[in-house]
Write a structure and sequence with these properties.
400 residues; alpha/beta; 6-stranded mixed beta sheet; 5-stranded parallel beta sheet
């Protein structure tokens, strides 16, 4: 729409033809005013009778364009060169323009009063229009090794996934230290055998980065949304999820074996089957088995836990698959089901204080499992990793 036609009517007074305002000047005044009258706030692109779109606003000089008696407020000391500046122009309705400039009413509208109308209106427009959905996200990358192999999660990969999947725009550089939020576990020794020392050092590094970058960024209001890309042993992913702040919205991404990409490739739902023990027990120990991307070998679970109450989640009675979770919707379904399961354990099996957890789950589900855990309500969760000799406890999350 052209904003130059019929919107810069000005009292010509006694000086004859006036200078035309440039298109750039007109555009600036319209944009600053948000297309609304600075006095009555009327939207000036809609006809009040027909509803048709046209330009119904006019640009008025605060200090008249010429230094003459006939130019409204034109005898002000403002330099003539500054009078066509956007700062000396207001967008108003045509009838209000008439009243502003008529000799009989001109004394009501001083230069200072009109400037105040303009200032208050334009500041309000700028403030209100700033409240749009924030489409930025801060990327958190945790890069580790898995049985000796590592996957690089570079900025191009994460940017593509975030933009195409969530329609958000990644922020890699934090204002306070100009660096990405990255947890690099690749140089920690002992991953190949999953030693206890490896987990201790990895846990310590996760804590350090979360406390010095994520927490600090949240306190400074520099992180309003988080996108998580993580590749590591599953107990570390659960622990990472447990450290994420519930006050910050989080999107979790998954590397898919089918195409080696991090974008969610489909919009399918996730269906899960839950098995729970029938009898209520006061025992302090329970077992949680999650068979989503693979199958936990129950025979290799420690003997002392074989008779403990067992809660089990399977991938919809189908064979587990490495790409079982192929959509954000499926991950959300997993989150909903696992929340429901923990709520059921708390209400029906409140005597369980320690939940020994064995899992074959996608990495995104591991992060979400940790995020769901509430240490004030849920049992103390002990995470087991598979070794050559069986399953060994490696990390603990939460403490009642």
């Amino acid at each position: 729409m052209v904003l130059g036609k019929g919107i810069n009517r000005m009292n010509t007074g006694t000086s004859g033809t006036r200078r035309s305002l440039s298109p750039d000047t007109r555009l600036k005044v319209w944009v600053r005013a948000g297309g609304r009258c600075v006095i009555c706030n009327r939207y000036l692109l809609d006809g009040q009778l027909t509803g048709r779109e046209a330009t119904f606003g006019e640009l008025a000089h605060i200090v008249g364009q010429t230094s003459s008696v006939g130019s409204p407020r034109g005898l002000d000391t403002m330099d003539l060169a500054d009078r066509d500046d956007p700062d000396n122009l207001v967008l108003i309705c045509d009838d209000e323009h008439d009243e502003l400039d008529k000799t009989a009413t001109r004394d009501f509208f001083s230069v200072e009063l009109i400037k105040e109308f303009k200032r208050v209106h334009e500041e309000r427009i700028r403030h209100v229009t700033a409240f749009s959905p924030d489409q930025t996200t801060v990327v958190l990358r945790m890069i580790g090794r898995l049985h000796g192999s590592a996957v690089e999660v570079d900025q191009n990969t994460t940017a593509l996934a975030v933009i195409t999947t969530s329609h958000r725009f990644p922020r890699f550089a934090m204002a306070y230290d100009r660096s990405s939020i990255e947890i690099d576990l690749r140089n920690i020794p002992g991953e190949a055998c999953g030693s206890q020392e490896y987990y201790r050092m990895a846990k310590s590094l996760i804590d350090e980065v979360i406390e010095h970058k994520l927490t600090e960024g949240a306190l400074k209001d520099q992180i309003k949304h988080l996108s998580v890309f993580a590749f590591a042993r599953w107990p570390l992913l659960v622990y990472l999820g447990s450290r994420l702040d519930d006050t910050i919205p989080v999107d979790v991404y998954q590397r898919h074996r089918s195409n080696q990409m991090w974008e969610w490739p489909s919009d399918s739902s996730g269906m899960f089957a839950i098995q729970t023990p029938s009898a209520v027990t006061d025992t302090g120990d329970g077992v949680l088995i999650l068979n989503i991307s693979g199958t936990v070998q129950c025979a290799r679970i420690p003997c002392e836990l074989q008779n403990a109450p067992c809660f089990r989640m399977d991938w919809d009675d189908r064979s587990p698959s490495s790409d079982a979770l192929s959509s954000r919707k499926a991950l959300q379904d997993f989150e909903e089901v696992i929340r429901g399961l923990f709520a059921y354990i708390e209400s029906s099996h409140g005597g369980i204080e320690r939940l020994h957890t064995f899992a074959a789950i996608p990495m995104s589900a591991a992060v979400m499992l940790g995020k769901v855990l509430n240490p004030k309500i849920n049992p103390h969760v002990i995470l087991y990793d598979r070794t050559l000799s069986g399953y060994e406890p490696r990390l603990e999350v939460g403490q009642r």
